[in-house]
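User: Okay, second chain of the day. Same drill as before: sequence in, structure tokens out.
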Amino acid sequence: MPPKRHLTARRVRLGAELRKLREATGMKAREAAALLGADAVQMSQIESGVAGVSPERVRRLAAHYACADEALIEALMAMASDRTRGWWEEYRGVLPPVNLDLAETEHHATFLREVAITYVPGLFQTPEYASAVFGYMRPELPESELIPRVEHRMRRRTVIADDNPTSYEAIIHEFALRIRVADRHVSRAQLLEILGQIEHEHITMRVIPTDLDGFGGAGASMMYMGGPVPQLDTGLREGATGTAFIDAEPQLTTLRTLFRKVEKVTLDPKASRDFVHRLSKEL
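Assistant: Same drill. Structure tokens below.
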């Protein structure tokens, strides 16, 4: 298949998983390429997501790689056949690729989990809150760049608000709920937005109060996006050097453990709702 003009998160992940399977066998790229009647360059393009690969070729490669996990094979074949052109493609060339990759990965996720320590999670944010955050972090942004960022963040919310919403668990630190990124009115509207969102059965929110003992996870902010099989889960963490997507199994295991560890020091959902309600009344 010809190389793709734009790399998408799904194509890159499919290529990465095929590379993992090949490397687990000790097979060289040129050897795998020969099985498809291709060359090492073509195999490199497939494994980097530059070139597509048919579902039939995915199954052939999986057989030669001695992969017996049928659920994983079927999931990889589905990724190979996917031709989704989502709303996020409208922002290609307008926003950084990482924004598009996040929206695409969220769209295909089977569940979402998030830990937010310093800011209200993006999927809960109001336009005014998001605008204040982007405007403060990147004050040099002109309106022509700020507006698409806010708009993109609002459109991401469709993943938990459409007719077939994705299950979403959010853990938010009290600090993130109390800090005023703009003014009192924006903060209160943001808390009321959260209260409205958590009325939906597929959304769960828990709060970490500042006076609760046993929380040393100030750096625990993360997003965890479930795949069709656990091997295709995706983690996301933001740091000083930028945003990193995580797909290595040892790191995914660490993130799963971290989420459950943080969850243990939260208020239960009902107490969390009451907590946010009280905060909104204080404003």
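The first strand starts at residue 111 and ends at 116.

User: Thanks, on to the next one.
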